[in-house]
Design a protein that fits this description.
heterodimer; A: alpha/beta; 5-stranded parallel beta sheet; 41 strands; B: mainly beta; Rieske Iron-sulfur Protein; 1 helix; globular; binds siroheme; binds flavin-adenine dinucleotide; binds iron/sulfur cluster; binds FE2/S2 (inorganic) cluster
Chain lengths: 816, 110
Amino acid sequence: MKEKLVIIGNGMAPGRMLEHLLEADPERCEVVIFNAEPRVNYDRIMLSPVLSGEKAYEEIIIHGDGWYIDRGIVLYKGHRVVSIDRAGKTVTSDHGVVEAYDRLVIATGSVPFIIPVPGTDLAGVITYRDLDDVQAMLLAAQSREKAVVIGGGLLGLEAAAGLRARGMEVTVLHVMPTLMERQLDPAAGYLLQKAVEARGIEVITRANTRRITGCGRVEGVELDDGRVIPATLVVMAVGIRPNVGLAREAGLTVNRGIVVDDGMRTSDASIMALGECAEVAGDTYGLVAPLYQMARVAAAHLSGDESARFVHSETPTKLKVTGIDLYSLGDFADGDDREEIVLRDATAGVYKRLVLKENRIIGTVLFGETSDGAWFGDLQKKQADISGIRDSLIFGQAYQGGSPADPLAAVAALPDDAEICGCNGVCKGRIVGAIRQKGLTALDDVRAHTKASASCGTCTGLVEQLMSLTLGDGYNPAAIQPICQCTDLGHDDVRRLIRAKGLKTIPAVMQELEWKTSCGCAKCRPALNYYLVCDWPDEYADDYQSRFINERVHANIQKDGTYSVVPRMWGGMTSSKELRAIADVVDKFAIPAVKVTGGQRIDMLGIRKEDLPAVWADLGKAGFVSGQAYAKGLRTVKTCVGSDWCRFGTQDSTGLGIRIEKFMWGSWTPAKVKMAVSGCPRNCAEATCKDVGVVCVDSGYEIHFAGAAGLDIKGTEVLGLVKAEDEALEVIVALTQMYREQGRYLERIYKWARRIGIDEIRRQIVDDRERRRAYFDRFVFSQKFAQVDPWSQRVSGKDKHEFNPLARLELAEAAE
Amino acid sequence: MMNWTQIGNIGDIPLRGARCVATPQGRIGVFRTADGKVYAIEDHCPHRGGPLSQGIVHGASVTCPLHNWVISLETGETLGADEGAVRTIPVRMEGEAIFIALETRAEKAA
Ligand code: SRM
Ligand SMILES: Cc1cc2nc3c(=O)[nH]c(=O)nc-3n(C[C@H](O)[C@H](O)[C@H](O)COP(=O)(O)OP(=O)(O)OC[C@H]3O[C@@H](n4cnc5c(N)ncnc54)[C@H](O)[C@@H]3O)c2cc1C
Ligand code: SF4
Ligand code: FES
């Protein structure tokens, strides 16, 4: 019988523990997890980059749903455990689920501390702990109004920088005279304050909050000296407290945290605790490095190795605000038995201070220039005697032994066991070993294999230096991002060379541009295929084997291997005849789901691949063509009812939308293109978040572009106002062609526009009539070859092999 | 024992392409690489069961159409950082004809 392991809390500590446990002994335990947060395990550290917009939530997920499914782990998302019955060995969640356990692990993390002043329960006052908090801040940031962050520590400053990056006016209130006083000495705290202020964030120190004002919603923060700072959002980031309520109620020994021994065992032999909620030898922890060590120890004990022990170690503090470099480790209080070495460079904003005791480093504070952090940290950890190098110590490792200041030399000289990634406890030897043994050449691969730089990311520079050191010329981070591992060239160079050298097939491109693999990969082949389709519309023979399955079979693959089919409904208009034809197809092929899409048309989902051609044949009879809902090409043109019906309509928006869609369908583009036409500025077709949109006004057509409403949300830019419908069409087509010729594969219009510059695009498309006409003509030429309905082609037999199995085998006879 | 069955001819599979074969033991993907080699593996990605025969074939590997795991056609193992493997199925060519070897049911039960 497997041992039943129940875990309360699904944060970073237990997530890492499970990885170690499954690695040591995948079959040992049946695992059930309860998590009060309604989500999987994600990298909490990276919430700040999500807040600032540098990362998306999807990118910080550590274990996705599939991870749990594949390992047979039950995860109750959104279930808070409300009681532990130690005698009966069960736990109960707030939704009434009861699970019995053989072993229980408590990993409930921390709760943010709320200062005891009036007004903290007003709407608009939030803490900074989980994704919900980030989402609440992002929502508030849309108002672009004023935010106050209470607390000038790590979390508070990251929140402030994120909110500022999102366009809010931000004030940080800090009760002490300098920022981050627990990690920085006053001099570094002062430099930090200047750096924070330089980003447009106001900092008020010695600020004691008296109350938060407002009626129902927060309106401001009142200080002890009577000042009131107006705010529509208040973020409380003044500290955390181990989350121990549940353990205390269950009668476990609890101090500040849940008391555990150095094997992570609580006072109950069947229950362990780890993470921020646990207290070992009187210490609780709030950074992941020690928590990951706890995870390793707990996993060892769970898999039967009782010898593993947790040992206290100091973790350096780093701030994850792009452009502010600081590093602090250890004890830097003044004292009679201590000496210090200080280096200041006021113009460069650099401050370095080492605190020494008996010729050993006990504290390090670096601001502005932190590349020697790992080296100092290593000397400090090993308690090395520095008397021999004392004079040059502060200048860093590159200056030791009189060698010239080569930044790589410093990293080269680090011993193999020097810790590079503090969060994940990865040392230099492991990184270099992985690069060599696995032949890694990209930073992302090093992250995937070693986890170094995969958490807070502040050690990325060091990891990159290790890569240059190990790979020599094989690694050049400043170089243009190559398309993929098959080439060193970037997208722009490849596009340029395809035209300059007149390359017209994928093998020719690979040969001439010295591809490193025999036939490319799933990243470069679709890109090359698009570039060739775009540049040589009449000559290039589209290579279907280089297209993603959806574009190969002209339907969207679903998670169970069936397909969905979306026919065009021009401009979102339909008729009883069309609807009847769809209804008949649905009945005839027993299609399990029919859905109205977000693009004003109908999606039939769950169609077996073998049935696709017959489905299309029937749809074709009713006049339908493919909606290309799968294509890196023109998708939909949404419209509103416009002047035909609407009492506010200024122009025939429906008509223009249909005209655009009929003119442009079938064209391939670097990434998908979605358009919309609204009949007046009420904008019911949502034209201002599309790749291209038109807002009709009395005086003509306002043409918008470079909007987004998917992974990113971005309002459009106005390209220009034109008077006539014909001119609107010409501008839109020319703009699309310019994007087709310059866009990198998978780069949406808004990203391309950001790269090229809105003004440059306006100059070429609006101001330069001749150039606009030339783009327009090239588009029209390429449509001659592109505007062929792929469905009717397949109905008449093209690519028949795609839709049927090669063979269907019965049970082997020999077996009977 | 091995039970060799003809499933079709080489011309039935596009270069750098794949077809699938329905068998009582589940679907099998049959792949033809750029250099004309033929491989057969379970048509079921180790990640979330994606149909590998619908992926993009490059070198002697295929990229799954659902979430881009890359699987070696030679060993059935995943390449890169992801871990997992699918069963490989023996293939024999006789001229143009492709044969694959299925386990017989007797063997499976044993
Ligand atoms: C069917 C539909 C959802 C629905 O039920 O309404 C849909 C379904 C899918 N969307 Fe979407 N999107 C649909 C409208 C949208 C919209 C709204 C719109 O078009 O007005 C958006 C936001 C606007 C935008 O694109 O910026 C949208 C943003 C995305 C994104 C994010 C793209 C981005 O660059 O930010 C993806 C992912 C991608 O393309 O890589 C995506 C990808 C997908 C895929 C293709 C996922 C996939 O790769 O398999 C889904 C295919 C399901 C299927 O087989 O039909 N879908 N998707 C909508 C089809 C519209 C249509 O008629 O063609
Ligand atoms: C914005 C931010 C930035 C940070 N930056 C850094 C950094 O740069 N470097 C660093 O080292 N650390 C950083 N940290 C700290 C680090 O994230 C934490 O130390 C770490 O996540 C703690 O892990 P944990 O598993 O103990 O708890 P958590 O990750 O907090 O997980 C606890 C989980 O338990 C759940 N839970 C609580 N009670 C119950 C219950 N009764 N039943 C079920 N589930 C329950 C909670 O919902 C939560 O999901 C940062 C933290 C934040 C918030
Ligand atoms: S939002 Fe789009 S991509 Fe995401 S699940 Fe829905 S249809 Fe699929
Ligand atoms: S199912 Fe194959 S990659 Fe996800």
